[in-house]
Each structure stands twice: as structure tokens, then as C-alpha cells.
Amino acid sequence: MGVARTPREAWIEQGLQTLVDSGVEAVRIEVLAKRLGVTKGGFYGYFPDRATLLEAMLDVWEHESTDEVLETIALEDDPRDRITLAGQLTLSPSRLLAIDLAIRDWARRDESVAARLRRVDDRRMALLRETIGTFCSDPDEIEARSLLAFCLAIGNQFLAADHGPGRTRAQVLARAAAILLDRPAEPDR
Asked: What is the rounded distance in angstroms from the CA atom of residue 61 to the CA atom of residue 65?
């Protein structure tokens, strides 16, 4: 009876986790094999080299953070709910957010990764423009709201500031989202 091979997806997922934990420099075949508890020989059954693995990692991230998200949010009728759900799926504390932030860091030093990130961000901005355009008709305001929404989602991950007396981060974020999406403010709970 043969030994079961470590699935291709496990190598990619471990690569993504290592990227999140330690950066792209740590995504090495030997490191991944050790973390998976296997020999590195199985790696070469799926990937000819490290560069191919890195490309596969980017493919998985792009597919999960755009195609799968767009497919999921298409089920929402209200455009504002689509935007909210897209943000929750990709940029709320989650596996995808951690990967997204790690890829943003990697893109600062790698032109091809920066191009991939730009493509993903362009698709995200297009979604924002399209959905905000359903309740706002001024093209300049649509662009500004789209940018602000995206900056809020990304920038919130790096902000360490406290908020005014009696306000939690969640409350401030909810109010900011309500302003951007032209929704009435929800009463404090």
C-alpha cells in the first residue's frame, strides 16, 4: 500500500500561513515540509520550484478574495448589504484579511505582486463604484465614497487610536459605514 501524498492545497495553505506568520522570505520548501511534517520530495510532484508555489498562493488568494466573494454577495438584493458583506468576507478579522495584509507588505518589495494586488484592488473598487452608484449619482462623490470605504476597511487594521468618551471602535466604524453608505445611523445598543 502506497503512502498518501500531501495534497497540493496543503502546500499552498501552509505557504499562505507562513506568509502571514513570517513573511514571504520564510516561504521556503524546507520550512513548509517541516511544518507539514513531511519530506520536501512531495512538493516537487506539484510544483517545479518555489516561484510556482508563490504564484499558486497568489492565485488562491485572488480567487478567494474576489471571485468567491463576488459570487457570495451576488445573493444579496440590497447594494449596501453587498458592500457590507464583501467587507466582512475580506477585510474583517479573518484568514483572508491576514493574507491580504501580508500580500500588501510583500507587494511593497515585489513589482509583480504589486501588479496582482492592483488588479484585486481595482476589482474591489469597481464593486464599490457600482454599488455606491445605485444610490449616489455624482461621479465625483461615488469615487470619493469608494475610496473612503476602502481606506476605512484597510486603514482600520493599522489604527491604534482610542475614540471619544463612551464610543467603542465598533460604534465608530458602524457610524462611518452608515455615512459612506448613506444609511441612517443605528441607535446605540
From this structure: 6
- Percent of the chain residues topping a pLDDT of 70: 96
Residue 113 lies in a domain: yes
Q: How far is CA 116 from CA 54, 59, 73, 148, in A?
A: 12, 9, 22, 22
In sign, the C-alpha dihedral spanning 123, 16, 47, 25 is: positive
Closest CA to 104 of 121, 81, 87: 121
139: domain CATH number is 1.10.357
Domains identified in the chain, total number: 1
Residue 158 φ then ψ, to 5°: -110, -10
**pLDDT one-digit tens code per residue, 1-54:** 445 578 999 999 999 999 999 999 999 999 999 999 998 888 998 999 999 999
Question: Which residue, chain included where needed, has cell 457570495?
Answer: 72
Q: Which domain holds residue 86?
A: 55-180
- The answer, as to whether pTM is greater than 0.85, is yes
Tell me, letter by letter, the H, E, C secondary structure of 109-130: CCHHHHHHHHHHHHHHHHHHHH
